[in-house]
Amino acid sequence: MSDTAFLPRARRKRLGLTPRQERTFNLLAAALVSAMVLGWAVSIGDQYLQRQESEETTPTPARLLASRLTDPRTPETAYLDDAQLDFLDTLRGRSGKLQAAFRAPGDTLTSPSEQRAPELSARFEAPSGREMASEDFTAPRDPGVYKLAVEMNKATRAIDDLRVITLVPFAEKKNDRIGLYYLGRWPFEGKGPPPRPSYANPTGFVEVTRENQDTAVSEHFKLRDFLTKDQFDVWPKYLLIDSRLIDKLELIVQELEEEGHPVEHVQIMSGFRTPIYNHSGGNTGGRASLSRHMYGDAADIFVDNDRNGVMDDLNGDGRVDPADSEVVARAAERVEAKYPALVGGVGIYPACCGHGPFTHVDVRGYRARWRGTGNG
Fold this sequence. Notes:
This protein is of the alpha+beta class. Helices cover about 25% and strands about 20% of the residues. The longest helix is centred in the N-terminal third of the chain and has 39 residues, at about 20-55.
């Protein structure tokens, strides 16, 4: 039996709540629970709003790009998606290492087969800072070395590792020279059609100045590497250079490295030769009257990592001799096997006349092999 059974009846009633007190208590409890629920809901809503504001102030790259491309009030920006620039890959050659595109004035920078968004356009910047735009990616009319940027509406991206070089037309050569720089006459100039198209007169020249001579044409080579070794005090100079040759040289470097020969420096002993130099400049022994050097698609090279002016001991036999030139020649053979469009001449030369052994490489368009003497 409960202890309350022994209490007076009046006192037993006072132990519980009266109906009025119970109603009051229930109202207060309900109000307290409602306040707690409301506070919890407000807190969640506030956190959600803060998160939304944070997302709006730091948008994702996709949202950022979309807004920049569609909002006409958005200022210019240096952001474009990599995939939109894939059409430029062919300008980097088969090696992927080319850093210059050579074009006649007004020639298109990309081929019609290259797929690019119609909204894209090119912007070129001259050394003077003057800018010009091209919706169809045609090279500037004035010869020179230009920086390149690609635009799409308000989005802009500089292509820092690629230069567009507009050529000086061959017709600018008067009396065997351009300005003060002597070039001479090409073998079939004014003599009718040549025996092969590759022996036709050049299309145009790169104008090389004191200021632009260090322009990179690829990962390992610069404009000045290919200059004729004469008329040292005459500027500007004029140069022929075939991008296929540069590409082939870079691929040879890759082949050598894959074979276990690290390559830090390739010396171009002889690149472009003006016709007048080919016939009468320096030691002319061993030079061909139709040398590909006059057409800018040949180079005599040797690996010279220690930069001592002679070929390195590539085969590790303790000697520097034509066997090291053969290592380079075999790399050139492998390049031609993989890329028939780069087929050409490969010649192996011993040390002679003040220089060490070297390898001649060209992209004449047909296979030629020989062992030479003299200067190549």
